[in-house]
Amino acid sequence: MDFPSLNAFFQAFVDVLNHPVFSLGQRTLTLGLIGKFILLFAGMVLMVRLFTRVFLARALTRMNMEPSLQFAVTRIVGYGLFLLGGYVVLNFIGVELSSLAVFAGAIGVGLGFGLQNITNNFISGIIILAERPIKLGDRVEVATVAGRVTKISLRSTTVVTNDNISIIVPNSEFITQTVTNWSHSDPRVRIRIPFSVAYGTDTDKLNEVIMSVAAADPAVLKEPAPALFFDGFGDSALNFELGVWTQDLASSPRRFRSQINYAIDRALRDAKIEIPFPQRDLHIRSGTLNVKQTDQDGAE
């Protein structure tokens, strides 16, 4: 290819880059400006991610900050840098924010009508990251979902159940619904195990047996100490409730209750303490009741 043809090719390429696409206010955007914006924005995204995931994460780790708080600070700083970077890139290519007023108004109308849920979840995500009612690793129960929080984003939160099922919960659910957080301020939780024994049981002996069951379980904390509560007199049984504190099994309370129930059942059978079943006494006020007896062959 000779030089005149090469110059003509570059001139045509420059003309394509300078071809106007649309206008924003008094600024005309060309293909070249749009390409420059894409490259600068991509570079800004890479720089923000590098800063938040490497430098900021290392700095927060050296400050001995909790991992959940590190996550929240990193996310908030990252979103702030994205907004700042977008503003700088727009100004660099000569686009003033005042020229985007029309688009901002259109977006506002869209938010008012079709994007209410997305906006609600977005704002709820910011509240969650700022106030930290939940954090990574917490076991939570909201609506019908129960599990461990593994990810918090601006739109939704990922909760993994004990069956290893990931459930995506909108952030607004954590703001508008009642949330049970098992490990919000203290990982220790008390789990209550109800059971019943037959009337006539020696309650002092029962207390000794049940306390030995609690003491033998390595997941039960010594402090606060376990306690056996006498709930009351039922129709066919004495109702008790064992209260034990645990720290390691707060993420799987059902399994913890199951192993305690197994241990209680074995201990009561070994101690010859009866676990009752519902019984009814029949009293005949008047008349007689004829009872027919049959032998093994069915003859009366």
CATH architecture of the largest domain: Orthogonal Bundle
Shape: elongated
Q: Low-confidence segments, ≥5 residues, pLDDT <50? A: none
CATH topology (level 3) name of the largest domain: Helix Hairpins
How many H/I helical runs? 8
Helix content range of the residues, please? 40-55%
Radius of gyration: 34 Å
Give the CA-CA distance, first to last residue.
Answer: 119 Å
The main pleated sheet reads as: 5 strands, antiparallel
Strand numbers in spatial order across the main sheet = 6-5-4-3-7
Number of strands: 10
Question: What is the arithmetic mean of pLDDT?
Answer: 79
What does this structure look like?
The chain is of the alpha+beta class. It has three domains: 99 residues, Helix Hairpins, CATH 1.10.287.1260; 52 residues, SH3 type barrels (Roll); 82 residues, Alpha-Beta Plaits. The protein has eight helices and ten strands. Strands 6-5-4-3-7 form a five-stranded antiparallel sheet. Strands 8-10-9 form a three-stranded antiparallel sheet, covered by helices on one side. A two-stranded antiparallel ribbon has the order 1-2. The protein is elongated, with a radius of gyration of 34 Å. It starts with a helix and ends in a 30-residue tail after the last helix.
How do the strands and helices of this protein lay out in sequence?
Elements: H1 3-17, E1 20-24, E2 27-30, H2 31-62, H3 67-92, H4 101-113, H5 116-131, E3 139-142, E4 145-152, E5 156-160, E6 166-170, H6 171-176, E7 179-181, E8 189-197, H7 203-216, E9 227-233, E10 238-246, H8 253-270
Helix pairs in contact: 2-3, 7-8
